[in-house]
Backbone:
């Protein structure tokens, strides 16, 4: 009971200095707001060396009774692009968004699969028939004939040309096998044999001794044997060239998300990095407040009078520790709530775990604060020790710079700080889009933070003097 009485007294003292309390809450929000407005949509992401191909898929596909292919032709082209090394596919939801990106110079080129793309692809053929379509011309594939539009930014012609050439290569890999496969199916059928016999008396004579079908089969077999390195019945590039099929993966496919509007860019992904980073950093900023509180009480003789009271050393230190811990916990919860309300930051699928991370971070921060209070004897010492710890630990841990941008060896070294463990936990809970967080990692981080806090408190126990 004396411990809680002492804690209640210190809480009243802390709340009397309302201006300092407001600063502790408002300052991190200002940092987050300013940085959120200043940095771009790629903040916190490592540069990607892969070529980005942006596409808009408006293709309506084929009727359900179509024998081949089993999916839209646009999907086949996108699969081929996505399976190409060093290429990353970005799916843009609609043409208006693509045109806006082109106008703003944010994309050099965008491939648009028009609604008729599958229907036009299905017509592609080497055969001379009214319903056939030959998209080949001197420079490759005539994309407009296929129902593909290439939106380009005239100020980025070089980059746009690269994207167009990549599209040409992929379309050749898709169109040529399809056209060859369809043509080879005609070899040996009645129409083909009649066409061959039209100007050949020898062929006409051969029909008197052997059926068209059998002769056609022999012609087809001869072509297969002559070009044994190829499979003309296949309709894919890998099948035609008898090479290994490329492995399809979704790892290099992303869906474009438009940049949020408004001054604060509410809902932007950057807030999933900024809010936790500054929540953690300013939790340890309270080291200065706790240090000054102890030094002031020591100078005023309050601690000496408490020693004269019927209180044990443990009760006094616990009475000082509890209000500081509650203040830190309140600050953490307030900043996470403000991140949701002001900046549109989602709390993720496991919001209750955020409380566990905030509580364990507060324990580690206040344990360090008690240690600084034991080391520092004067206000200048508190300022020097506290500021040095706050800035150095924030820099090492990735609170000032996204951890994803740090070199791997530096990321590993950062785990000597409690901040890094807290940021790992927040990253699991907040930064993963549409993925369940690894609760084991979050729980491990909380455990390490608690260990940090208890370790700091153990050191502080032997260093804090109450006289």
Residues:
């Amino acid at each position: 009971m004396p411990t809680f009485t002492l804690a209640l007294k210190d809480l009243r003292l802390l709340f009397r200095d309302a201006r300092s309390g407001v600063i502790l809450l408002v300052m991190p929000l200002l940092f987050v707001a300013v940085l959120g407005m200043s940095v771009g949509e790629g903040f916190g992401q490592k540069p990607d060396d892969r070529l980005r191909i942006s596409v808009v898929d408006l293709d309506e596909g084929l009727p359900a009774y179509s024998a081949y292919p089993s999916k839209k032709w646009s999907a086949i082209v996108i699969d081929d692009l996505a399976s190409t090394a060093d290429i990353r596919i970005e799916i843009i939801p609609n043409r208006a968004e693509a045109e806006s990106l082109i106008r703003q110079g944010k994309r050099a080129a965008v491939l648009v699969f028009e609604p008729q793309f599958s229907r036009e692809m299905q017509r592609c053929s080497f055969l001379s028939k009214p319903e056939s379509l030959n998209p080949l011309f001197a420079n490759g594939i005539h994309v407009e004939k296929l129902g593909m539009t290439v939106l380009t930014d005239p100020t980025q012609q070089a980059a746009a040309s690269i994207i167009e050439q990549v599209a040409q290569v992929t379309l050749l890999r898709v169109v040529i096998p399809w056209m060859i496969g369809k043509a080879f199916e005609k070899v040996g059928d009645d129409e083909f044999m009649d066409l061959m016999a039209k100007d050949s008396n020898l062929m006409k004579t051969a029909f008197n001794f052997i059926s068209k079908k059998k002769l056609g089969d022999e012609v087809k077999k001869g072509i297969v044997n002559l070009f044994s390195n190829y499979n003309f019945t296949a309709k894919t590039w890998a099948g035609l060239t008898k090479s290994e099929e490329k492995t399809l993966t979704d790892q290099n496919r992303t869906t474009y998300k438009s940049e949020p509007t408004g001054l604060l860019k509410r809902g932007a992904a950057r807030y999933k990095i900024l809010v936790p980073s500054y929540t953690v950093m300013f939790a340890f900023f309270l080291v200065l407040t706790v240090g000054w509180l102890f030094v002031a009480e020591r100078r005023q003789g309050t601690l000496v009078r408490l020693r004269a009271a019927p209180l044990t050393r443990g009760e006094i230190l616990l009475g000082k520790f509890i209000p500081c811990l509650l203040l830190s916990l309140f600050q953490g919860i307030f900043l996470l709530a403000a991140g949701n309300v002001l900046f549109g930051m989602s709390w993720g699928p496991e919001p209750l775990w955020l409380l566990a991370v905030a509580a364990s971070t507060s324990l580690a921060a206040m344990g360090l604060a008690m240690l600084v209070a034991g080391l520092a004897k004067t206000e200048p010492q508190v300022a020097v020790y506290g500021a040095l710890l706050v800035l150095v630990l924030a820099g090492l841990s990735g609170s000032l710079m996204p951890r994803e941008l740090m070199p791997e060896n530096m990321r590993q070294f950062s785990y000597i700080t409690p901040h890094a463990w807290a940021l790992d936990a927040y990253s699991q809970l907040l930064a993963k889009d549409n993925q369940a967080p690894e609760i084991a990692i979050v729980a491990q981080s909380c455990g390490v933070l608690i260990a940090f806090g208890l370790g700091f408190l153990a050191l502080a126990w032997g260093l804090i003097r109450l006289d």
About this structure: The two ends are 23 Å apart (CA to CA). The domain at 51-186+227-255 is CATH 3.40.190 (D-Maltodextrin-Binding Protein; domain 2).
